[in-house]
């Protein structure tokens, strides 16, 4: 399969905002090549069936428009080139290396050798393929940190928008019980299945195509969703229906100017905010449904 590589030349301060624009335009994951503060390249890949050439001028305009929000986008050029599957993988391998995300969790690309530094370190083997979720994006690492804080052992969990499956697999390493992992995108389902096979501890995760929690009636102890804020809004009332009393709802993927919106939506639906985690321009919110009498 052929791919279109899209490279944005920008600045260090614009990395998160540019990533956000690309994600809103169906990019999967991004790689960052930052030799210099003002000479940064944000790289992503689109499958050949997406007409990126048509999108590119609009993307360039949005990136140039970041200056209106006080963010210097630098050159803000968008360049496209065609790559085949093998060179996609080679480029990807150049940028993606083992990374210790939290105290206990390290993510290691499936093709790299890695020895954990201590017995406590849980090593997640991952080949994200075209799905989002290398673990290195702030939205994923915040969600991983939140899972590490909340999982005590045996919790049932639903992962909404599983991407590469990274959050569900990490949750199994942290001791979670039964997990359902859903995504709307077939590439994500394929990647999650492959990544579960790389991490036998996660073999009982139930993986399925689903939009948000549409049609799901079971109740669980924990729901995690790393999705854009606009998509979290309709998920909130659904999460309320699918959580056990005292159940926890972890949301991530919230860019700074959407944080208040999500906090307000959560509290309007009866959630209590436990903690707000922040990395760069991104937020993750841990909330719970109060039990009777709380
Ligand atoms: C930002 S990625 C997160 C991936 C991974 N969970 C992580 O934390 O790295 C968001 C994922 O949500 C999926 N998604 C977007 N809209 C969705 C929807 N309505 N229902 C289910 N999944 C959705 C996308 O396909 C993508 O895989």
From TrEMBL:
What protein does this entry describe?
Ribosomal protein L11 methyltransferase
Q: What's in the GO CC field?
A: cytoplasm; ribosome
**Which GO molecular function annotations are given, in alphabetical order?**
protein-lysine N-methyltransferase activity
Read off the InterPro entries from this record: Ribosomal_L11_MeTrfase_PrmA, Ribosomal_PrmA_MeTrfase, SAM-dependent_MTases_sf
Species this protein is from: Ligilactobacillus araffinosus DSM 20653
- Entry's EC annotation: 2.1.1.-
CDD domains the UniProt entry points to: AdoMet_MTases
What is this protein for, i.e. what is its function? Methylates ribosomal protein L11.
Residues bound to S-adenosyl-L-methionine = 140, 161, 183, 226
């Amino acid at each position: 399969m052929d791919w279109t590589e899209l490279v944005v030349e920008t600045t260090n301060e614009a990395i998160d905002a540019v990533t956000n624009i690309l994600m809103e335009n169906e990019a999967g994951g991004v790689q960052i090549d930052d030799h210099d503060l003002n000479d940064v390249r944000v790289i992503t890949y689109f499958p050949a069936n997406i007409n990126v050439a048509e999108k590119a001028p609009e993307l360039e305009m949005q990136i140039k428009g970041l200056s209106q929000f006080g963010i210097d986008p630098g050159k803000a050029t968008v360049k496209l080139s065609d790559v085949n599957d093998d060179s996609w993988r080679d480029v990807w391998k150049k940028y993606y290396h083992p990374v210790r995300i939290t105290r206990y969790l390290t993510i290691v690309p499936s093709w790299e050798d890695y020895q954990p530094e201590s017995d406590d370190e849980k090593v997640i083997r991952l080949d994200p393929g075209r799905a989002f979720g290398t673990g290195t994006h702030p939205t994923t690492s915040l969600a991983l940190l939140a899972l590490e804080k909340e999982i005590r052992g045996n919790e049932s969990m639903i992962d909404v928008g599983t991407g590469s499956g990274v959050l569900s697999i990490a949750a199994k390493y942290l001791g979670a019980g039964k997990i359902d992992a859903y995504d709307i995108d077939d590439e994500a389902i394929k990647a999650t299945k492959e990544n579960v096979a790389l991490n036998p501890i996660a073999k009982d995760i139930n993986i399925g195509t689903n939009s948000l929690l549409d049609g799901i009636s079971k109740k669980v102890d924990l729901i995690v969703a790393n999705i854009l804020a606009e998509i979290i809004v309709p998920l909130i009332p659904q999460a309320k229906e699918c959580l056990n009393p005292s159940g926890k709802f972890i949301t991530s993927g919230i860019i700074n100017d959407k944080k208040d919106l999500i906090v307000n939506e959560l509290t309007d639906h009866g959630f209590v905010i436990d903690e707000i985690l922040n990395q760069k321009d991104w937020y993750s919110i841990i909330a719970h449904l109060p039990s009777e009498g709380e």
